[in-house]
Structures are given as C-alpha cells and as structure tokens.
Amino acid sequence: MAETHGGGARRRWLVDVARWCPSPAQFQAAAALLPPHHHPAIARFVREEDRKRALLSRLLQYSLVHHVLGIPFHQIDIRRTVEGKPYLKNGTAAFRNFNFNTSHQGDYVGIASELLCLVGLDIVCISKPQGETTVEFLKNFSSYLTDHEWNCIDRAGGSVEMLTEFYRYWCLKEAFVKAIGAGVGFGLNRLEFHHVQWSNISVYIDGIESRNWRFCLFKLDEIHLASIAKGHPEDAVNSFKRTLSNLVFEEEEFYAALEIPEEVFTLQTVEQLTQL
C-alpha cells in the first residue's frame, strides 16, 4: 500500500551545509549541473554560505526528481508559480501529483516530496536574539500567532523555552503556507495549532479544525527544528493547483496517503546529489 500511495515517491533528504567546503572549481562544477537560468539566483548572494544554500536547494530538487522519476538532469524542467512555489513541469502520468518542497536555514538544506498529498517543509534555527531580549524579539511577531499560541509560549518557562516554543509554531505555520503554495501575503494568524506534547498536532484554519492535514516536528540537533505538513490538494492556491493533475480521487485513497507514518530524514552528501 505504501507504494500505491506514494511510498516510492516520498523522500526526506537533508544536506549539512557546514560539512561542504568546496573549492571555487568544485562549486562551479556542481552549479554547472543545473540549467543556466538558475545561476543568477545563486550568484546574487554575497555571502558564500548563502550561495551554498541556494545551490544545494536546487541540487536537491533536481537530484530528487532524477532519482524518483528517472528523468536525466538535463531534461528536468522545474519552474516556479507566480508566488515562487517550485514545481515539476514535465512530470509523468504515473506521478500526476508529485510535488516537493525545500527549506534551508542554519546548517541544513532539506527537501520533502509526496505523490498525492501536498507537502511543505520548513527548517528553523533557534538562535538567541541579538541586541534585544527574548520578550522584545517575540513582540515583533505578535500579529502572526493567535492568543492561544501566545498563551502556550508564555507558559513555556524561561527565555530559552519560550523561544523554542515560538519557533515550533512558526515552523509549522511556514510548512503549511509552503505546502499550499501561498505567498508572503498569507495571514499566519489564520492558522492555530493544537498538540499533545508536540504530537497529535492539529490545525484550525480560520477557527475551523481541518481533518485534511497532518503535521510532524523533528529535532535535527540542539538548535535546528524541521516540520513537515501534508494536506489535501484542493487547499492549494490556484497557481499551484493548476500544476497538479490529480485533484479528483477517492476519500479513502487520500486518507490512506495522509496517514502513512512520517519518516526520518536521510542525510545526503553533495557527491550523492551529483551522481547522475
């Protein structure tokens, strides 16, 4: 059943940016694997670490499509919607709803893919605020979380616990928005998350609990968190929905795909990503 509902198309990959220290020639060789239209988006970054993240994010997309669908690198056609959501334009009939999402922050770049469900990934680095207290830092985000979520943050304990609690909520909200392909204008306060010790996570959208979404939080290390959001294709924004070709399916089929247990991330090396 896992294969029927996307087991073969599901990937959870991570690359540790800090472990990749390429020479200029090695960096250029990796970038040369990508179509030329990606190069300006990578080169525009001033900091080397940002260029590495931008390159690895794109390499993850092409490598994943290559390994899952068997399409050669030079034939893969990845485009973006008007909101900036990457999607595969030249998919196959057997993988009609195949979609993926990348995220990068701190030491990690990651990707997640699904066959039927929408998928969103977000990675956060829990860093201490610079030049302001934790409370002052959190006030900058007062309009993005609900009263319930802020109450949970307030009750978390000291400043470190409050900061961690905040990033958990932020990570989940970003994963949802990225899954549906929405842009920066989506109101994060429309989402309210409930949980039991950060398991059995559920979402209320505009005050109504949704049965069509599942969420999972991962602790990558002491300061990095990742979240996966999986949901119904009907919830995608229009520009992204038009890239999907399997919007009509049995409810039983969707929930079977939605309830597949979440998998841990597999650490990939750049050498593995560039194996054609």
Automatic annotation (TrEMBL):
Its EC number is 2.7.8.7. It is an enzyme of class 2 (transferase). GO terms for molecular function: holo-[acyl-carrier-protein] synthase activity; magnesium ion binding. It comes from the Eukaryota. GO terms for cellular component: cytosol. The lineage of its organism: Eukaryota, Viridiplantae, Streptophyta, Embryophyta, Tracheophyta. GO terms for biological process: lysine biosynthetic process via aminoadipic acid. It comes from Lolium multiflorum (Italian ryegrass). Residues 19-114 form the 4'-phosphopantetheinyl transferase N-terminal domain. InterPro entries: 4-PPantetheinyl_Trfase_dom (IPR008278), 4-PPantetheinyl_Trfase_dom_sf (IPR037143), AASDHPPT_N (IPR055066), P-Pant_transferase_sf (IPR050559). Residues 119-225 form the 4'-phosphopantetheinyl transferase domain. Pfam families: AASDHPPT_N, ACPS. Keywords: Transferase. This is holo-[acyl-carrier-protein] synthase.
